[in-house]
């Protein structure tokens, strides 16, 4: 039985990359693991500071136009520029519209990873649209059997 994480990680390892990823759910470890795989596959070692951009909607001073500029900037030394947008569930009004506009015009030189806060439900129309335009996974908390299997698989790696 393959888990969601194994499926998305396998896609990344096989270089079946998407322009947009939407990751949500309570299992932050799995989300971080997917991010690590993307970094490993996309970024050249030592070029994180040039080709990796991180934004957090919850931080004071967040500007959606800065995100757009980063997305449109070609990578300096890596296969693609990797942009991480955290706390996407905190976007408001016109910023939501600007993000959706960005998603409707993908470019091949960047990958945008959008992450929703673990405690937030992602069932509104805004998230439905994002899910339809991206590779989307909701990483739920592992239950007893799944957790035991995951631990065994992890140790065997």
Keywords:
about 160 residues, alpha/beta, Rossmann fold, five-stranded parallel sheet, about 45% helix
Task: Give a summary of the structure in a few sentences.
The protein is of the alpha/beta class. It has helices at residues 4-13, 28-42, 48-51, 64-72, 93-103, 125-133, 144-156, and strands spanning 20-24, 52-56, 81-86, 110-115, 135-138. Helix 1 (4-13) packs parallel to helix 2 (28-42).
Strand order of the largest sheet: 2-3-4-1-5
Q: Helices and strands: which structural class?
A: alpha/beta
Radius of gyration: 16 Å
What CATH calls the topology is Rossmann fold
CATH class categorisation: Alpha Beta
Number of E-state strands: 5
Task: Note the run of SSEs as H and E.
Answer: HEHHEHEHEHEH
Distance N terminus to C terminus?
16 Å
The domain count comes to: 1
Summarize model confidence as the mean pLDDT.
86
**Shape type:** globular
| Count of discrete alpha- or pi-helical segments spanning 4 or more residues | 7
Sheet with the most strands, sense and barrel status: 5 strands, parallel
Query: In terms of per-residue confidence, which ranges show pLDDT below 50 for 5 or more consecutive residues?
Result: none
Strand content: 15-25%
- How helical, in percent, are the residues? 40-55%
